[in-house]
Amino acid sequence: MHENEIQSEYFVDPVYAAAALRALRALSNRLAPVLLVSELRTTATDSLWLSGASRQALFGIHFTRRNDPARVRVAVAEVEAALPDFSARAVHDHGRTRSDGT
């Protein structure tokens, strides 16, 4: 694990998971220079009112990127531009965090 990294996660309706992944695949050459790890996850529907999955299952696309804020901002903008069409709900940025706690 890297001590310094920038993470974000986006959620789309599972119905659009394959289309969202195709859209991101088209960006792979531009995302690769700052990408360390990408993880895909599914989140079951729950009844917790503050949960992102409240009354709706979600497909999560997680990115761990190098700590290069300028290049990551460009990558984030491209990802966010590619994903909004794939969910009735807005794509949720899970925040940009550094693993060193800052």
CATH class: Alpha Beta
* Rg, Å, rounded: 14 Å
Domain tally: 1
- State the low-pLDDT regions, or none: 88-102
Within the CATH hierarchy, at the fold level, what is the topology?
Alpha-Beta Plaits
Helix content: 25-40%
Strand content: 25-35%
Cα-to-Cα separation, first versus last residue? 16 Å
Total helix count?
A: 3
Going across the major beta sheet, what is the strand order? 1-3-2
**Rounded average pLDDT:** 82
Structural classification: alpha+beta
- Biggest β-sheet, characterized? 3 strands, antiparallel
Question: Any idea what the CATH architecture is?
Answer: 2-Layer Sandwich
How would you spell out the order of helices and strands?
A: EHHEEH
- Strands, total number: 3
Essential attributes:
three-stranded antiparallel β-sheet, disordered C terminus, globular, Alpha-Beta Plaits, about 100 residues, single chain, alpha+beta
Provide the fold topology:
Elements: E1 5-12, H1 17-25, H2 28-31, E2 35-43, E3 58-66, H3 69-82
Antiparallel strand pairs: 1-3, 2-3
